[in-house]
Design a protein that fits this description.
mainly alpha
Length: 177
């Protein structure tokens, strides 16, 4: 018994009914349309070319790929060598920058004051502790010069180098002039 009330009449009594809305034409710009004939011809061409891929000799492709990989490997080796050179340069400059304050200190202290060694250098028997001891290394027939040079990690001198040259290398490295 629950019924909906009757729908109101369309329009007011004595007035004509409201007409239904009319569709409105919206202007649409004319966009380029696909040429389905050309599209199907292009796809046919692609399909024909793909069908020919198995005919390519594998050895030829393999040779091209290997040549490219070898070229890339060579370029990577050149870059790695360049990076090693830069790393060596940075290490050398870092050591030199670390040494400057030590060299200034060692050059300015009196001959009986203990000298400074770079961080990480382990003092071993035979190494000089003062500027005076550095200058007396010459009298030890070079044994203490070699011990000191090895502990400092100094580069090797030529086989023909004299004790005096090794001694000078140590003095310059430590700045104990």
């Amino acid at each position: 018994m629950n019924q909906l009330p009757p729908a109101p009449p369309a329009g007011q009594p004595g007035q004509p009914p409201i007409p239904p809305p009319q569709p409105v034409a919206i202007p649409v710009p004319m966009l380029p349309q696909p040429d389905f004939i050309r599209l199907s011809q292009g796809l046919l061409t692609v399909a024909q070319e793909i069908a020919l891929v198995p005919n390519v000799p594998l050895q030829g492709i393999f040779n091209v790929i290997m040549a490219s990989l070898n070229r890339i490997e060579g370029e990577v080796a050149q870059v790695a060598a360049g990076l090693r050179a830069v790393e060596h340069w940075l290490d050398r400059n870092n050591i030199e920058l670390t040494l400057v304050p030590i060299q200034i200190f060692n050059a300015s202290v009196n001959s009986s004051t203990n000298i400074m060694y770079p961080p990480g250098i382990h003092i071993v028997p035979g190494m000089p502790l003062t500027r005076m001891e550095i200058h007396t290394l010459m009298g030890t027939a070079g044994a203490n010069c070699q011990v000191t040079a090895a502990a400092l990690g100094l580069p090797n001198l030529p086989v023909t180098a004299t004790v005096m040259q090794r001694h000078q290398q140590i003095i310059e490295y430590l700045g104990a002039y």
